[in-house]
C-alpha cells in the first residue's frame, strides 16, 4: 500500500449513527488510516472518553468540531442531538423540523473544512446529502453511511421503485415487496410516514435529496457482513447497481469491559454491579429488553410490558428510557415482587456488555439496526418489536429470512411510541422465544450467525476483505 490515506467521518447527530461511526473510525484507524470525525461540541463530548481510551491503546482518531447552529434554527443552545428531542410525538415533530433546518446550515462550514483538510475520502451520513456535491467539487470520493442493513435498503428502494403500497385497498392488507428475493410481506401501516404521505417538509426534502446524492456518490458503506444477508448485498450491488462495501459488525471492535460499557453515554448502572447480577444467573436464562436511544413508550405501554413480563415468570433486565420521576407506569409492588429476578435500568444501559453475557438468552428489541446486529453478534434470538424508522423491515430480516426471532405483533408504524401491544401478546412472545418448541433451533441458528460474524472480521473474512479492498482503492485513487 502507498502513503497513509486520510478519511473523514461525518455522522448524523443521533446515537444510532454516532456509535457505529465511532466504531468504524476505530476500525479504519487500526488499519493505518488517518481518521478524523467531524462533529459538534455536544456530540463530541459523547465519545471523548472512547477517543481517549483508543489513543492510549495506540489508535489515534482526530476530531474536528463545527459549531451547531442551534440559535439560527430556533433551538436552545446545546440542543445538538436527536435524543434531546421532546418525547411526545407532536412536540417532537416540530423540534425535529427545526433540527433538520439546522442540519442544512452545516453545508457552508463543512465545505470550508473539507477544502482546508482535503481528505482522501469522506464517509458522510445519509442526512447530509449536500456532502456529495461538496466532495465531488474537490475530487474527493464520498461514501454514504445509512446506518442500516442491506436488506432494509433493498426494501426501501423496491418500495420506491414499484410502489406496491399504493395498490392495496387498506393499510392492513398485506403486499409482497416486488422483485425482492424472499417474498417479503408488509402492510402499508408498517411503512414510514415519509413513504405514505405526499407531504413536503425539511425532512422529506432531505430524504429526496439523499436519494439523488446516493446515485452521484462514490458508493455506500454498510455496517453488516456477507454471511448475514449476502442475498441482499448481491441484490443491492448487482440488481440495484450500487457500489457498496460492508465492514461490520463494527461493534465487535469493543473488547475491553469499559469499551463495551461506555458507548455513546455513561451507563445508568454500575457495570460491575450489572455483571455481578448476571454472573449469579444460569446461562440463557435472562431476557434483555431495550428499545434503543429514541423510542419512548407511553406509561400505559410500559405498564403493559411490566404485566406481560411478570406473567411470563422470566428473569429480565429491562431498560426504560422514559424520564418519569413518579414511576406512574409501575404496577404496585412490581419491583419488590421481582427482586432478584428482574432488574430495571432507568436510562442508558451498557448494552453490548449485557448482551454478550452468557446468562442472556433472549433480546426484546425495537429492531434498530445497531441493536439487531449486536443481538446477532451475541448469538441471542430476539422478540421483534419495531416502532418506527426502518425497523419493520429489519424485523422481517430477523424473523422471516434469518429465522432467529418471534414477532411480538406490532403492526403500526408510529414515531417514538410505536403500536400498542397488549400484555398477553408480550407474555406469549417472550415465552415462545425462551422456552417454546422452536427456541432451541432459533438459538442454534443465532449462535451460528454469531460465529460467522466473528469470522467475517478476522483476516481474510468477508468484511475484512471488503475493508482491505476499499482502503486499497482509495489509496490507489489518491496517487
Ligand atoms: N444503546 C445502549 N444503551 C441503551 C440504549 C441504546 O448502549 O440504553 C446503544 C445500542 O447498543 C445501539 C444504539 O445505542 O448501539 C442504538 O442504535 P439502534 O440502531 O439500535 O437504535 P436507535 O437508537 O437508532 O433507534
Automatic annotation (TrEMBL):
EC number: 2.4.1.-
Keyword Transferase: yes
Pfam families: UDPGT
InterPro entries from the UniProt entry: UDP_glucos_trans, UDP_glycos_trans_CS
This protein's record includes keyword Transferase: yes
Keywords from the UniProt entry: Glycosyltransferase, Transferase
Family as reported in the entry's similarity comment: Belongs to the UDP-glycosyltransferase family.
Protein name per the record: Glycosyltransferase
Native source species: Hibiscus sabdariffa (roselle)
Amino acid at each position: 500500500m502507498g502513503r497513509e490515506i486520510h478519511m473523514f467521518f461525518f455522522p448524523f447527530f443521533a446515537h444510532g449513527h454516532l456509535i457505529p461511526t465511532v466504531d468504524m473510525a476505530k476500525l479504519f484507524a487500526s488499519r493505518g488510516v488517518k481518521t478524523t470525525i467531524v462533529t459538534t461540541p455536544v456530540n463530541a463530548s459523547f465519545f471523548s472518553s472512547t477517543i481517549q481510551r483508543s489513543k492510549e491503546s495506540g489508535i489515534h482518531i482526530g476530531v474536528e468540531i463545527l459549531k451547531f447552529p442551534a440559535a439560527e434554527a430556533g433551538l436552545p443552545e446545546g440542543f445538538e442531538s436527536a435524543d434531546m428531542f421532546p418525547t411526545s410525538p407532536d412536540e417532537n415533530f416540530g423540534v425535529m423540523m427545526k433540527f433538520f433546518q439546522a442540519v442544512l446550515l452545516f453545508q457552508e462550514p463543512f465545505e470550508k473544512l473539507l477544502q482546508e483538510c482535503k481528505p482522501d475520502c469522506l464517509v458522510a451520513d445519509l442526512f447530509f446529502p449536500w456532502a456529495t456535491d461538496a466532495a465531488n467539487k474537490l475530487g474527493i470520493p464520498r461514501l454514504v453511511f445509512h446506518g442500516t442493513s442491506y436488506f432494509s435498503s433493498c426494501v426501501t428502494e423496491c418500495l420506491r421503485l414499484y410502489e406496491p403500497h399504493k395498490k392495496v385497498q387498506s393499510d392492513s392488507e398485506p403486499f409482497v415487496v416486488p422483485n425482492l428475493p424472499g417474498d417479503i410481506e408488509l402492510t402499508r401501516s408498517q411503512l414510514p410516514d415519509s413513504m405514505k404521505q405526499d407531504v413536503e417538509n425539511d425532512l422529506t426534502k432531505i430524504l429526496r435529496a439523499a436519494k439523488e446524492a446516493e446515485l452521484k456518490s462514490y458508493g455506500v458503506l454498510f455496517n453488516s457482513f456477507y454471511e448475514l444477508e449476502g442475498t441482499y448485498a448481491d441484490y443491492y450491488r448487482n440488481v440495484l447497481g450500487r457500489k457498496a462495501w460492508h465492514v461490520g459488525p463494527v461493534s465487535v471492535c469493543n473488547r475491553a469491559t469499559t469499551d463495551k460499557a461506555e458507548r455513546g453515554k455513561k451507563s445508568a448502572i454500575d457495570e460491575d454491579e450489572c455483571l455481578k447480577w448476571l454472573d449469579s444467573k444460569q446461562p440463557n436464562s435472562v431476557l434483555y429488553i431495550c428499545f434503543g436511544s429514541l423510542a419512548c413508550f407511553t406509561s400505559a405501554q410500559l405498564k403493559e410490558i411490566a404485566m406481560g413480563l411478570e406473567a411470563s415468570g422470566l428473569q429480565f433486565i429491562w431498560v426504560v428510557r422514559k424520564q418519569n420521576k413518579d414511576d406512574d407506569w409501575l404496577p404496585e409492588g412490581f419491583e419488590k415482587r421481582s427482586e432478584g429476578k428482574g432488574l430495571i435500568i432507568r436510562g442508558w444501559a451498557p448494552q453490548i456488555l449485557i448482551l454478550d453475557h452468557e446468562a442472556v438468552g433472549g433480546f426484546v428489541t425495537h429492531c434498530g439496526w445497531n441493536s439487531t446486529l449486536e443481538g446477532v453478534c451475541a448469538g441471542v434470538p430476539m422478540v421483534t418489536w419495531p416502532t418506527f424508522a426502518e425497523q419493520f423491515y429489519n424485523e422481517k430480516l430477523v424473523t422471516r429470512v434469518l429465522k432467529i426471532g418471534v414477532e411480538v405483533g406490532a403492526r403500526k408504524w408510529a414515531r417514538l411510541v410505536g403500536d400498542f401491544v397488549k400484555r398477553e401478546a408480550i407474555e406469549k412472545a417472550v415465552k415462545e422465544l425462551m422456552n417454546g418448541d422452536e427456541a432451541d433451533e432459533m438459538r442454534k441458528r443465532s449462535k451460528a450467525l454469531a460465529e460467522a460474524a466473528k469470522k467475517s472480521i478476522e483476516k481474510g473474512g468477508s468484511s475484512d476483505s471488503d475493508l482491505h479492498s476499499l482502503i486499497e482503492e482509495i489509496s490507489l485513487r489518491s496517487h
